[in-house]
Amino acid sequence: RKEVEQDPGPFNVPEGATVAFNCTYSNSASQSFFWYRQDCRKEPKLLMSVYSSGNEDGRFTAQLNRASQYISLLIRDSKLSDSATYLCVVNGYNFNKFYFGSGTKLNVKP
Amino acid sequence: DGGITQSPKYLFRKEGQNVTLSCEQNLNHDAMYWYRQDPGQGLRLIYYSQIVNDFQKGDIAEGYSVSREKKESFPLTVTSAQKNPTAFYLCASSMRGPQTTNEKLFFGSGTQLSVL
Predict the structure, then answer these.
(1) Alpha-carbon distance A99 to A97, whole Å?
(2) CB-based contacts of B59, cutoff 8 Å, min separation 6
(3) What tens digit of pLDDT does each residue of B7-56 get?
(4) DSSP structural state of residue A82
(5) Do A102 and B40 touch (CB under 8 A)?
(6) Which of B17, B42, B82, B111 has the smallest CB count inside 10 Å?
(7) How confident is the model over A71-101, as pLDDT tens digits?
(8) Of A8, A93, A101, which has the smallest distance from its Cβ to B101's Cβ?
(9) Burial label, A14 (beta-carbon count in 10 A; 0-12, 13-18, 19+)
(10) Any idea what the Cα angle at residue B29 is, between residues B24 and B33, rounded to 5°?
C-alpha cells in the first residue's frame, strides 16, 4: 500500500464549479499535511498547509480527518487558472522524509 | 530574492556519460533533497541531506551520487549506471528536516534530463 494515495483524475469541471479532492495516508503517526499545486513541467508550489481544525484561504478550504486518515481540498468558484495537478504531501514525527501522492489533475473548462 | 536555483533547465546525456545537475539555495535551509518525477507519476526521493557533509539514500539512489560540501549547494550526478535517466529532476530544501512538525518544502524550477 502506498503511503499517500490520491485519485489521479482528471477532474473536468466548468468555470464556477466547486470541486473537491481527497487524499488518504497510511501512517497514523503523520503530523504535517500540505497541498501543493504543480503546473505542467513546473515545480510544485505550496498551496496551503492543512491544520487539524481545518483552514481556508480565499476560495480554497483544506480539512483533515485524523480518524479516517484523509485530507481534503475544496475549491469553490473554479477559475481557468486553477487548472493544474494538486499534490498531497505528508510528513511525520517518526519519518525522515516527505511522502507525496501522485497528484490529482484538474481541468477547468470555459 | 531568496530561493532555490537549479541549472541547467534542460540537459542531454549521451550513453555512458556522467552528468551533474546543479542546485543552490540562499534560504539558509539545513535540509536539501533531490526528487525524480516521471510523467504522470509522483515524486520519488533520490537523496537527501540534513547537514553539511552528510547525506542519505532515498528510495531510488542507485545510479546517482551527491555531495554536500557547502550548506548552499547539493549537486546531483547522474552516472552511467543509471540506465533510464530520462525524467524531470527537482531539488528542494526545508528549514530543518521533515521530522520537524509543519516543515515545508520549497522547490527549484527543475531540470529536464533526456538521453541522446
Answers:
(1) 7
(2) B44, B45, B46
(3) 999 999 988 899 999 999 999 999 999 999 998 788 999 999 999 999 99
(4) G
(5) yes
(6) B17
(7) 999 999 999 999 999 999 998 655 568 889 9
(8) A93
(9) exposed
(10) 65
